[in-house]
């Protein structure tokens, strides 16, 4: 049976645009939606679209300081940098109507969460969202407002008692972790490249939550060069056990696809097929541990043509209950759109030709393997907080 999926969408979501030289280009979202549409994902039974409104100031203030919101509004009008709030940096240049664009993305993530929480759909999606770095009082890492955190805070306001957040972006989900570091109602799990080699320099396994929430911040810091098999081994050694123990009422996931080997800003080595396995695994865990209630968001991804549209189309298809054979050719009309919009040649199929497999961690720990050491460090740091034996 096809899944019920509500997609939060408005053409204005592509207005979040730091300029033509910035790596976070909105064309990646445009090309994703076009590819998913042409492959029939939106025609599947149970797929619908949610209207999107900008997040109100009241919503933004669930996680952001009022003075910061005012600074964003002002910067979008004056186009002047505001150093205390990290507005006007190379990572976060100011642009016209910045507040309106960022608040629309946040409103879309809240709309996706609302659809799931109220039972309008099993799953809610906002591929333009996942801006997980923004901090309570400043922009950070291409992120002005932290839409995942606002959506989670909104769910808590509605009465949710347990929300799990799993972040598979190559960068640590530092903003979301910060905002819920002392709140045991929210379990944050981030799998990312080691802070020794990548921005933002946080996300060590010893970051486990505040005094009243120990074990509710979980960080898996993977060495540069980690590929499909090792990444999947890490995921399956940690995430399912914690979600089964936590039993969230709703699962929120961030699907940055900058873990791909072609991504220009990071150093992990996943394939399209490995990323497709991740999407499917999180979908299954949502069904197993959260009664199917799943909010899925985009995130990073800077190979704008070869990676992002294909990865997120697979994500939306999985959420919609649509099987896209990895060998499926990309539509000619979509390739033409890619050429017109970017001047690049589009990928010819929906696969990188890989068959990702992994050896379960439970089959044996190798102390000489850097990935196994990363897995073990995380398990030892947080599993006992949840009554789980880290050696099993």
From TrEMBL:
<dbReference type="InterPro" id="IPR023801">
    <property type="entry name" value="His_deacetylse_dom"/>
</dbReference>
<feature type="region of interest" description="Disordered">
    <location>
        <begin position="342"/>
        <end position="364"/>
    </location>
</feature>
<keyword id="KW-0006">Acetoin catabolism</keyword>
<dbReference type="InterPro" id="IPR000286">
    <property type="entry name" value="HDACs"/>
</dbReference>
<dbReference type="InterPro" id="IPR023696">
    <property type="entry name" value="Ureohydrolase_dom_sf"/>
</dbReference>
<dbReference type="GO" id="GO:0004407">
    <property type="term" value="F:histone deacetylase activity"/>
</dbReference>
<dbReference type="InterPro" id="IPR003085">
    <property type="entry name" value="AcuC"/>
</dbReference>
<protein>
    <recommendedName>
        <fullName>Acetoin utilization protein AcuC</fullName>
    </recommendedName>
</protein>
<comment type="similarity">
    <text>Belongs to the histone deacetylase family.</text>
</comment>
<feature type="domain" description="Histone deacetylase">
    <location>
        <begin position="22"/>
        <end position="317"/>
    </location>
</feature>
<dbReference type="InterPro" id="IPR037138">
    <property type="entry name" value="His_deacetylse_dom_sf"/>
</dbReference>
<comment type="pathway">
    <text>Ketone degradation; acetoin degradation.</text>
</comment>
<dbReference type="GO" id="GO:0040029">
    <property type="term" value="P:epigenetic regulation of gene expression"/>
</dbReference>
<dbReference type="GO" id="GO:0045150">
    <property type="term" value="P:acetoin catabolic process"/>
</dbReference>
<dbReference type="Pfam" id="PF00850">
    <property type="entry name" value="Hist_deacetyl"/>
</dbReference>
